[in-house]
Design a protein that fits this description.
The chain has eight helices and eight strands, in the order αααββαααββαβββαβ. With about 220 residues, it is an alpha+beta fold. Among the domains are: about 60 residues, Winged helix-like DNA-binding domain superfamily/Winged helix DNA-binding domain (Arc Repressor Mutant, subunit A, Orthogonal Bundle), CATH 1.10.10.10; about 80 residues, Ferrous iron transport protein A (FeoA) (SH3 type barrels). The mean pLDDT is about 95.
Amino acid sequence: MKTPLTRSEEDHLKAIHALLPQGERAGTKDIAERLDIKASSVTVMLKKLAAKGLLRHAPYHGVSLTPKGTAAALKLVRKHRLWETFLVDRLGFGWDEVHDIAEQLEHVSSDKLTDRLDDYLGHPGFDPHGDPIPDRNGRIVERTTRALHTCAAGTRVRIAAVSGSTDGLLRLLDTKGLRIGIQLTVQDVHAFDGSVDLKPRTGAAFSLSKDVAERLLVEIV
C-alpha cells in the first residue's frame, strides 16, 4: 500500500502545476512566492518529490512534473474545484468565500468521496469562477476565451471565467451583478485608459476599468 502524500507535498505539486502554463519549468523562487514560504524549504521539498518520481528537478533550471506528478496535481485541482462548486451551488456560499475552505477540503484523500461529490453535482465542467474541473481521468474541457478588454465595440460576449481572482475582485464583480454566464455587449473601449463600457441584457450600462476587464475572460456570443 502506497504512502499518501503529505499536505505540504500536495501543496507544492499544485503550486508547480499552476505555474507551468507560464513556462515549461517552474522556478524555486516562483514556487516559494506562491506558497509564501522560504526558497530553502522549497528546495528541500523538491528533492523529496523528485525522489518519489513526481517531478524532474534540475538545479538552477527549475522543475517540471512527471506524468505521475501531473496526475497527482490534477487530482488536487479536481477536488478543490468540486468543493468550491459544492459550497457555492449547494451550501449558498459566495464565490469570494470558498477558496480557503476548499484548500482544506482538497486534502481529503478519498477518491470515492470525490467521485460521489462529482456525481452529486452532475459532473460540472467548470467551477464557480469559470475554471475547468478535470474529470476522474484528468481530462479538461477545452474552450476558446479572450480577455474582455480585447473585444471590439459592438461585440456580444458571455463571461466565462475570472482570471487571477481575488476576494476583493469577486466582491467588486458582485456589485456590478457580474457572474459566470452573464451576457454583455461591449459598447466602447476607451483608448485613453483602457476602460470598457458595457451593456447587460437588462439594466443600465456601466464601465469597468482596464485592470478588471483584463481579468474577465469571455466567449464571443
